[in-house]
Amino acid sequence: PRPAPQTCPLLLRVFTTNNGRHHRMDEFSRGNVPSSELQIYTWMDATLKELTSLVKEVYPEARKKGTHFNFAIVFTDLKRPGYRVKEIGSTMSGRKGTDDSMTLQSQKFQIGDYLDIAITPPNRAPPPSSRMRPY
């Protein structure tokens, strides 16, 4: 038999916002999740840069240079009911950054946790006409 690969893929449940703020934790309560869910098959050693490019495949608006992605892990709090959020790093479209090569594993991501990505358009406050459509 062949030796098993070191890492096996996991289903990553990603939630995105396009207002630059993370979801409120009460949006994850009692089995509910925000409606903006992306499901990505990936690995524990996936980098934030790789995850950014997967999100950009789904949301073409996020490909604009200067779009900012702020990553957070949403996890169950073992000490009290509900979820906690831990910001782990950020990336930017079209620009190299220090967090690009950060992996989920290095941030203590555990299978079953969610990833919440707050996406900020390049010019921060778009004029009303060019608003991204809400998902």
UniProtKB/TrEMBL annotation:
GO terms for molecular function: transcription corepressor activity. It comes from the Eukaryota. Keywords: Repressor, Transcription, Transcription regulation. GO terms for cellular component: nucleus. InterPro entries: Hist_deAcase_cplx_SAP18, SAP18, SAP18_sf. It holds the Pfam family SAP18. Belongs to the SAP18 family. PANTHER family: HISTONE DEACETYLASE COMPLEX SUBUNIT SAP18 (PTHR13082:SF0), SAP18 (PTHR13082). Found in a mRNA splicing-dependent exon junction complex (EJC). Component of the heterotrimeric ASAP (apoptosis- and splicing-associated protein) and PSAP complexes consisting of RNPS1, SAP18 and either ACIN1 or PNN, respectively; the ASAP and PSAP complexes probably are formed mutually exclusive. For the ASAP complex, the association of SAP18 seems to require a preformed RNPS1:ACIN1 complex. Forms a complex with SIN3A and HDAC1. Interacts with SUFU. This is Histone deacetylase complex subunit SAP18. It comes from Herpetotheres cachinnans (Laughing falcon).
